Amino acid sequence: MSGLGGTGGWDVVATWVAAAATIVVLGGMFGERRLFGWSQHLLAGLATGFLALVVISEVIVPRVVEPLAADPTGRPELWAGLLLVGLAAGAPWLPRPVASIPIGITIGALAAFAFGGAIIGTLLPQLVATTAVREPTATETVVAAVAALVTVLVVLSFLHGTPRDRIGRGAHRLGRWLLVAGLGGWFGYLVLSRLVLLVDRVGFLLGDWLGIGR
Amino acid sequence: MRDRLVRRLLPAGVLLLVAVAWLVPEVPALDLDTAETGAVDAWEATLDGLPSTPLVLVAFDPDVGTYAEIRPTVRAALAELLARDARLAFFSLTPEGRALALAEMDRLREGQANPRRWADLGFAPGAEAAIVELSRSVPVADDVGGEIARRFGDGGADAIDALVVIGGNEIGPRSWVEQLLPRVEATPALAVAPTVLLPELLPYAESGQLDALLATPGDGAAYRSSVSVGRLDRFLDASPPRALPVLVGLVLALGVVGVALVRSVSADRGNGGSGAQRAREAEA
Lengths: 214, 284
What we know:
A: 214 residues, mainly alpha, B: 284 residues, alpha/beta, six-stranded parallel beta sheet
């Protein structure tokens, strides 16, 4: 299963289990819903179990329990964190202003990191890259100018309401179509990724499991 | 009744065609590694510019839905880094990425990669907040010893000589570019990502925020055919994706879209014009 050519007993068992699971999932395409549903439950159960294992063994025990057990008064921020977890768990029974504190802190922190990162790491560097840098060739200058134009038109398509003047309406409509074309291109990439996954699974069944074509 | 039968048989036909295409020997005209090698050149140039025995943080967060596409390239990249005498530190921010990282580290262990050259920094929750935390203090577990632990202990995140992001749909190179790179001193960043992330990541590669990006099957194939890993070729993937079945699948997908389009146009004509046309008439 690791691709290192293991042929031991457990490798064979793992290959057969994986082949069975792959066939069951592919069977969903032919209308075999019961086994397909069972495989979805299996995946959800395994994912949940793995998540619990990772969180307990790599987060809760080493980062919360062990530091608090070693020095109960030395890490007050961990007690504050535990209090917030308690508030989140007891939210259904607590007054709304109290229950909203952990949710507010979580959403606020996530938004702050995402917003700050987007400005410092994406918006400003991308603005510099597209506007303030001289391109080495005329072709690249034209490409950069077209990219900037497309960006402006797509941004215009997000304007609230339709502009009344003719040029504004045209730009708005063109921006919409460019946006749709972009989404179409992205969808094409998505199809390609999924096709590679399907081909990989077919290759696994034929090559690794049945031993054909290797 | 006929439509129902066709709907049942169509997936079988697709699978059969893909399987037959998979069994056909490789067609040289469809070789993906003839693609433009600019991305590969950038990758190699970035690695050439690293100091000897570089400490590389491998941010490993692919997702199972797209990992099949990048897996051969990821394995080749890990083998190349080990062949270049790099020290690899694996770190994950998603449980899915953690599961795949564990599988790849297990593979390194089975292949008897020198255990002093790679270490498991584990999983950290909090997504972007965890990246910010890592930029202040790298979480090295007690059971991680040797040179990697010492270098992180001495220099923290500044000890990182290069960042290699194995991206997926949830946490990808964008998060690392936004959160880590502004906080650490001029660290080269390389990324392997599935094609679906290309529109999001190409601007970072073009602007130089990402020093190298391998994000298409063509880039991956070109990289794999050019990479030199010496005796570590046992870590390369034995079954990289084949071009012909993917091409067959793409043609079938285009066929499905075409049929749906024709049916939609026919239905609109049968109903007296397109939806947009009817809306304009109603507005008038």
